[in-house]
Amino acid sequence: MKPAPFAWHAPEDVAEALALKASHGEAARFLAGGQSLVPAMNFRVAQPAVLVDLNRVSALDSLNFDAAGGLRIGAMCRYRRIERDAEVARHLPLLVEALAEVAHPQIRTRGTLAGNLSHADPASEMPAVMLALEARFLLRRQGGERLVAARDFFLGPLATALAEDEMLAEIHIPALPPGSGTAFLEVARRRGDYAMMGVAAVLRRGPDGRCVAARLALCSAGPTPILADRAAANLVGTRLTGEDFAAAAALVVTEIDPMGSVQASPAYQRHLAGVLVPRALALAAERAA
Amino acid sequence: MKVTIRVNGVEHTREVEPRLLLSDFLRHEIGLTGTHVGCEHGVCGACTILWDGAPARSCLAFAVQAEGHEIRTVEGLAPAPGKLNPLQQAFQDAHGLQCGYCTPGILMTMTAFLEDNPKPDEAQVREALSGNLCRCTGYQHIVDAVLLASQA
């Protein structure tokens, strides 16, 4: 229950952090909020020889809106700052609504969004929310950077598109167009636990009230967060009635691949998806009105 | 490596390994054993301290990371030896503890919570308490104690 020894580096700028990661390669891990990595180290499930601690890289603790109204969140921006930001709550209520389900306030004090996404636990809420919001991730390495769409980032349980020398440096979330409504719902055994099933819904109505865009993303629904593309496509053009939501739920259940756990069998997880999807869609549709 | 950490307003300098958890620094290096260690993976809340005023798990941070930050532990709550602050007094008056193992973490969580929400309702207290496990009280008396403190 104590971490194995490691060498600790606490650089103060991004270039130094990237250089350290490049020189130590696989032996090194970036340390952000530490709310997933440190428990894993305490259990000795993770035994990195080197920690490149980003907590002193103040340039990474950023949260701002770009000219197009999109939100940019730096690697060291903590959940606590995001969930308390009035502008975030106004423009991206889905993010704040889902953050309330992420562990507990004490964890959100130090935990970071970028750290959570890099950890890529398929049961975690935030990866699904990033899919629903069509986020893109700025991956930086020494001498280069690239933008990767959230849907191309999550490759499997705890597996991402990050190369050995790359850092998830910034999260880009585009502005939601007018007429949008969002909702996040989950069922967990206890408050703050990982969800047995969670649903993020994003809907947009056109001037006639019909659905012009829809996205549904689920957590604890497979080896990665799952985008239910067919169910979402089927909603476009509908009047967003209860029947449309039931039809979407029936499709979602065929698109997910829940893995089951000690708390819930895959069959029960599918049942939960069937219950939560119509509820989340109804809420999002009401908010899009 | 050498680290200087400010705890309850007092600076402590020690030679530590980077892997030393902040919880173990508090208990074993400077002898502040009021911070309890339960699960050591961030679930139980017994080790909750205030990190720059915000509640955090001291078992999920390394002591070396705390340099330059203000750490507050349960020892920092009482106004004087033998005296209790209003929140501590409310826990005594409302029977908010039995074995007491979880109490320091809950006091720190609720100290920050009451600063943010001086007049909470019961639902808000229960939500704020969700990150601290207690196996004795059934929580009701803890909720009562926090509400009592908020009325003081």
UniProtKB/TrEMBL annotation, chain A:
<dbReference type="InterPro" id="IPR002346">
    <property type="entry name" value="Mopterin_DH_FAD-bd"/>
</dbReference>
<dbReference type="InterPro" id="IPR016169">
    <property type="entry name" value="FAD-bd_PCMH_sub2"/>
</dbReference>
<feature type="domain" description="FAD-binding PCMH-type">
    <location>
        <begin position="1"/>
        <end position="178"/>
    </location>
</feature>
<keyword id="KW-0274">FAD</keyword>
<dbReference type="InterPro" id="IPR051312">
    <property type="entry name" value="Diverse_Substr_Oxidored"/>
</dbReference>
<dbReference type="InterPro" id="IPR016167">
    <property type="entry name" value="FAD-bd_PCMH_sub1"/>
</dbReference>
<dbReference type="Pfam" id="PF03450">
    <property type="entry name" value="CO_deh_flav_C"/>
</dbReference>
<dbReference type="InterPro" id="IPR016166">
    <property type="entry name" value="FAD-bd_PCMH"/>
</dbReference>
<dbReference type="InterPro" id="IPR036683">
    <property type="entry name" value="CO_DH_flav_C_dom_sf"/>
</dbReference>
<dbReference type="InterPro" id="IPR005107">
    <property type="entry name" value="CO_DH_flav_C"/>
</dbReference>
<keyword id="KW-0285">Flavoprotein</keyword>
<dbReference type="InterPro" id="IPR036318">
    <property type="entry name" value="FAD-bd_PCMH-like_sf"/>
</dbReference>
<keyword id="KW-0560">Oxidoreductase</keyword>
<protein>
    <submittedName>
        <fullName>Xanthine dehydrogenase family protein subunit M</fullName>
    </submittedName>
</protein>
<dbReference type="Pfam" id="PF00941">
    <property type="entry name" value="FAD_binding_5"/>
</dbReference>
TrEMBL record, chain B:
<dbReference type="Pfam" id="PF00111">
    <property type="entry name" value="Fer2"/>
</dbReference>
<dbReference type="InterPro" id="IPR036884">
    <property type="entry name" value="2Fe-2S-bd_dom_sf"/>
</dbReference>
<dbReference type="InterPro" id="IPR006058">
    <property type="entry name" value="2Fe2S_fd_BS"/>
</dbReference>
<dbReference type="InterPro" id="IPR012675">
    <property type="entry name" value="Beta-grasp_dom_sf"/>
</dbReference>
<dbReference type="Pfam" id="PF01799">
    <property type="entry name" value="Fer2_2"/>
</dbReference>
<keyword id="KW-0408">Iron</keyword>
<keyword id="KW-0479">Metal-binding</keyword>
<feature type="domain" description="2Fe-2S ferredoxin-type">
    <location>
        <begin position="1"/>
        <end position="77"/>
    </location>
</feature>
<dbReference type="InterPro" id="IPR051452">
    <property type="entry name" value="Diverse_Oxidoreductases"/>
</dbReference>
<dbReference type="InterPro" id="IPR001041">
    <property type="entry name" value="2Fe-2S_ferredoxin-type"/>
</dbReference>
<dbReference type="InterPro" id="IPR036010">
    <property type="entry name" value="2Fe-2S_ferredoxin-like_sf"/>
</dbReference>
<dbReference type="InterPro" id="IPR002888">
    <property type="entry name" value="2Fe-2S-bd"/>
</dbReference>
<protein>
    <submittedName>
        <fullName>(2Fe-2S)-binding protein</fullName>
    </submittedName>
</protein>
<keyword id="KW-0001">2Fe-2S</keyword>
<keyword id="KW-0560">Oxidoreductase</keyword>
<keyword id="KW-0411">Iron-sulfur</keyword>
